[in-house]
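dumping this here so i dont lose it
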């Protein structure tokens, strides 16, 4: 994890919900969210995932509680959280790449956790990116394709990998200009 001093990390922003009893927390998901609400959310998300119209995607996702800024572009197959879409905020002119997933929940063995996902203005998530609950991606930040974002991405930074880490653009530029 990246040390940022007193800045809270995603784990500090997660709400923990114990699920005592036999079995894992997913076995009692209906205690967490009403099945009809999840079914409606799922139907809307599936429609949005397959719609080629960005305006229609944004309109549909707003209907289930996603906070979608102006000019947001959702790639085909991109998926906001189906259980807690109301915990997703996407800033103005952000790009959510093809097949990216924004998760606001984690079902674990003895608890489930929920946390807001915030994507900043003009941020860009590459294709296949997965963002975990409680993560904030800053304004103008970029996340490379197929990255797993488990920590906050500061404004203006580029991150990549599994788990995603900052990309050192200076090192890459030095290697490209090194004649040896």
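and the seq i came up w/
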């Amino acid at each position: 994890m990246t040390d940022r001093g007193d800045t809270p990390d995603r784990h500090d922003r997660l709400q923990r919900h114990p699920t005592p009893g036999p079995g894992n927390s997913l076995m009692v998901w209906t205690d967490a969210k009403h099945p009809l609400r999840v079914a409606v959310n799922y139907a809307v998300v599936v429609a949005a995932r397959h719609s080629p119209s960005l305006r229609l995607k944004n309109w549909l996702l707003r209907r289930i509680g996603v906070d979608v800024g102006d000019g947001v572009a959702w790639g085909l197959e991109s998926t906001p959280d189906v259980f807690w879409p109301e915990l997703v905020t996407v800033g103005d002119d952000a790009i959510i790449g093809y097949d990216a997933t924004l998760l606001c929940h984690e079902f674990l063995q003895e608890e489930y956790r929920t946390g807001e996902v915030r994507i900043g203005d003009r941020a860009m998530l590459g294709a296949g990116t997965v963002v975990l609950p409680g993560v904030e991606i800053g304004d103008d930040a970029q996340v490379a394709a197929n990255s797993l974002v488990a920590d906050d991405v500061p404004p203006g930074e580029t991150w990549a990998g599994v788990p995603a880490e900052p990309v050192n653009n200076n090192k890459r530029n030095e290697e490209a200009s090194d004649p040896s």
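The domain at 10-177 is CATH 2.160.10.10 (UDP N-Acetylglucosamine Acyltransferase; domain 1).
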